[in-house]
Amino acid sequence: MDWQIPSLTYEDVRLEANRFAARYWASGSVPVDIEHITEFELHFDVIPVPGLKSLLKTDAFLYSDFSAIAVDQWIYTYHGVRHRFSLAHELGHYFLHRDLYAKLHIGSIADYQSCRNALSDADMAYMEDHAYWFAGMILLPLGHLERAVADAVKKCRDHGVSLRRMWDTIGERRYICEPIGRQFNVSREVVGRQIELDGLDHKYGLAAPRKSRWRPGIGR
Ligand SMILES: [Zn+2]
């Protein structure tokens, strides 16, 4: 079967994320209440499933009738920031891959497993990238993120910290990423990745300026 996986650039996903924000989070404040949007604006049931992560190697999945999102019960109960990101990620599949998901007929764990087996690793990774981008964009709106990075960089500069050395040392990135993560209610790893995806590391002197106009997602 031809799955017809949509071909999307980072900018395409950004447009969809901007549309989402305008429609469902018009206040633009942070942290974005993704739990409220998922359940009360988009009317998804969020169904905690014990052992989902160890069974499927995924934190969550979207039902093809778009009635529900199944989530790992342990993550749902004990790991709030990861749960929030999972919801945003599944909404990414909903807004970016809706036609495909409708054809996949996922209505149970077994259905998800057989779909996962039918998709090639390359196709799966391609779609996953898009859903990850979408999740990062909606939980870390670019304007807010850029202001937070500019503030953090200024503080580091005021204290004489070498920005590039700190950014290159993953363990030390937390001095920038942790406070921003608390502000947006996401993990510090998600913050670090979004700063890189949006090129703010280069723009604010955390990494050397780029020689070419690199963009995520180019090359397929
Ligand atoms: Zn996914």
Summarize the helices and strands and which ones pair or pack.
Layout: H1 10-24, H2 34-41, E1 45-49, H3 52-56, E2 60-62, E3 68-72, H4 73-78, H5 80-96, H6 98-104, H7 109-118, H8 121-139, H9 142-158, H10 163-168, H11 174-184, H12 188-197, H13 200-203
Parallel strand pairs: 1-3
Antiparallel strand pairs: 2-3
Helix pairs in contact: 1-8, 5-8, 11-12
Bound molecules: zinc ion.
Residues 89, 93, 128, 131 line the site of zinc ion.
Descriptive notes:
About 60% of the residues lie in helices and about 5% in strands. The two termini are about 20 Å apart. A hairpin with a 5-residue loop joins β2 and β3. The model has no long low-confidence stretch (mean pLDDT about 95). It has two domains: about 10-140, Arc Repressor Mutant, subunit A (Orthogonal Bundle), CATH 1.10.10; about 140-205, no CATH class. α1 (about 10-25) crosses α8 (about 120-140) and α11 packs across α12 (about 190-195). The chain has a three-stranded mixed β-sheet with strand order 1-3-2. The protein has helices spanning about 10-25, 35-40, 50-55, 75-80, 80-95, 100-105, 110-120, 120-140, 140-160, 165-170, 175-185, 190-195, 200-205; strands spanning about 45-50, 60, 70. With about 220 residues, the protein is mainly alpha-helical. It is globular and about 55 Å long. Bound molecules: zinc ion (ZN). The site of zinc ion has 4 residues, from α5 and α8. Zinc ion (ZN) binds near residues 89, 93, 128 and 131.
